[in-house]
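Technical annex B. To support the medicinal chemistry partners, we prepared a structural model of the target in complex with adenosine-5'-triphosphate, based solely on the information shown next.
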Amino acid sequence: MSDPVLEIRGLRKAYGKIEAVRGVDLTIQPGEIVGLLGPNGAGKSTLFQIAAGLFAPDGGEVRLFGLDYRGNSSAILRRLGVVFQSRSVDLDMTVFANLAFHGNLFGLTGKLLRERIAEATALLEIEDLVKQSVRTLSGGNQRRVEIARALLNAPDLLLMDEPTVGLDPVMRRLVVTHMEKVRASRGTSILWSTHLVEEVERADRIAVMKAGEVVSESTPAGLCAATGATDLTQAYIRLTGGNAAVN
Ligand code: ATP
C-alpha cells in the first residue's frame, strides 16, 4: 500500500501564549479530497502553513509522501502544489508569463512547459485568457490562474488555504467543480481549508477544527450521523457551537 500523501500526528504550534494548533492528527490518502472546515481562528492556516513547510511546528510529526521536511524539502516541494489565501500572482504580467515563470522555477521549459500550461489552463477553463495581463481579470479568474499555476508541476497533493476568499457564490461553486475535475483527471489529493460548509459537502472526508483541535473527522454523511444532524450545516453548528457560514 502506498504512503499517505499527508500524515500529521500530534501537531502543536503556539504564538506566544496563543495555542493555535493543539495536538492535531490528520491523514490524507492518495486521491482523497479532504476538507479542513472551521471558523476563523480555528488554526487552519497555521496547520496549512506547517504542512506547506513554511515553518516548523513546536511538536508533533508532519510527513508528506512518507517524508519528513528535515532533509527532504526539495523532494517534497517537487510533488506539492500550494494555493495561499492571499493573492500571489504578478498583476502586470500576462497569464502566460506568470505561468511560464513559475514553471521555470520547477525546471519546466520548452515543449513540456507549454504542454503543462495548456493542460492546467484547460482544466481551469482559462485557455482564452492566457494573453491578457492578470490585472485585467476578475478576482475569480485571477484565482483560477493561481490554481492553474499550482498544477504546473503536476503535484500529487494540492494544499488550498481558503481558495475562494472574496469570490462570489457562482465562482466559488465553479472552483469546487474545477478541483473535482483535477482530482478525476490526475488523481491529485487535495486538502481544502475553508469556513464555508457548502465548499466541502462533496469532499471525501471533512476534519472539523475548532480552537486548535480537530473536534470530529469523518465523511460528510458520517459527521451528520455522529451529531444526529439532518444536514452538514447543522452538523457543523453542533460541532463548533457557532454560526455556519454558507455563503
Ligand atoms: P482564519 O481563517 O481567520 O485565517 P484560521 O482557522 O486559519 O483562521 P489561524 O490563522 O491559524 O486560524 O489562527 C489560529 C490562532 O492563532 C488565532 O487565534 C490567530 O489569531 C493566531 N495567530 C495566527 N497567526 C499568528 C501570528 N503570526 N502571530 C500571533 N498569533 C497568530
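Notes passed to the chemistry partners:
The domain at 1-79+155-247 is CATH 3.40.50.300 (Rossmann fold).
The beta strands are 6-15, 18-28, 33-37, 59-64, 67-68, 80-83, 157-161, 189-194, 205-210, 213-218.
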